[in-house]
Amino acid sequence: MTATPDVDDPKSPLRRLRAVMRSLYHGSSPTAVRFRYAVILIDLAIIAFFIAAPLIRHQGGVFYAIDYLIAVILAADLAARALAWPSLKSWIKRPIVWVDLFVLATLLFPAWLANFGFLRVLRLWTLVDSEFFWRTVGRRFDDTRAEEIIKAVTRLATFVFVITGFVYTSFMGRYEGIGGWVDALYFTVTTLTTTGYGDIALPGVWGRLLSIFVMLFGVSLFIRLMQVLVRPHKVKFPCPACGLSAHDPDAVHCKACGHLLNIPNDEA
């Protein structure tokens, strides 16, 4: 009988493949950085397709061909990330992974999950909120105010596109006020900002409940963005005594416990 290859054997193909994936996804070599840039550019192109999907869905066969091609790319990326992660069990427990798996399901089964296609835009959030992105594109701004601003803008934009897609999917053709994707976007923005022009108001109890949700949740994201923009910048440095991680850039003592800090900076 032929012996089964031991995955713990350094010479086994699976072990070598995992080592290659780790070096590409988590390494700092020029090759790894170029690889991650390529992955991020492909991700952004896919996200752009997701946002434009309601406008080009009528293309039929071409649209579904692109859909399945993206499914193959996303499945390969998820498999590679799983191999690159130290533990498959800890990887599968991450919420971002479950979001990506759901996005993949909507691509693999478009006929059954067509009404959930608007949730594909969540890929924008999973990309910009990942360490993978900040170790590559934003490595100079990791753990800085720029990271907080970009994440806040991304969360607000993702919310707007998801709600727009939901309104378009649920009310297009059923209510004369929503005649297209732009109308759905217009309703989302005017409701989120509580402008309240009144020219588009979703009918029925569910329409009112959706409007309330958009106003409450959307305004909270908008306020969060404003807070990040106007509040004083804080340096992330865990206090050795109490663990407080946000301090003023020139802080000498922790404001929570008074412990002496030694925050690294570029000043002489």
TrEMBL record:
- Taking every annotated instance into account, which residue ranges of this chain make up the domain Potassium channel? 159-230
Chief site of localization: membrane
Swiss-Prot/TrEMBL GO biological process terms? action potential
Q: How does it sit in the membrane?
A: Multi-pass membrane protein
Give the UniProt subcellular location, in the record's own words: Membrane
Q: Mind telling me which residue stretches traverse the membrane in this protein? A: 35-56, 62-84, 96-118, 149-168, 206-226
- Tell me the InterPro entries matching this sequence: K_chnl_dom (IPR013099), VG_K_chnl (IPR028325), Volt_channel_dom_sf (IPR027359)
Question: Which GO terms label this protein's molecular function in UniProt?
Answer: voltage-gated potassium channel activity
Sorted alphabetically, which keywords does the UniProt record give?
Ion channel, Ion transport, Membrane, Transmembrane, Transmembrane helix, Transport
Top-rank taxon: Bacteria
Annotated Gene Ontology cellular component terms: voltage-gated potassium channel complex
Coiled-coil parts of chain: none
Q: What is this protein called?
A: Ion transporter
Gene source species? Caulobacter mirabilis
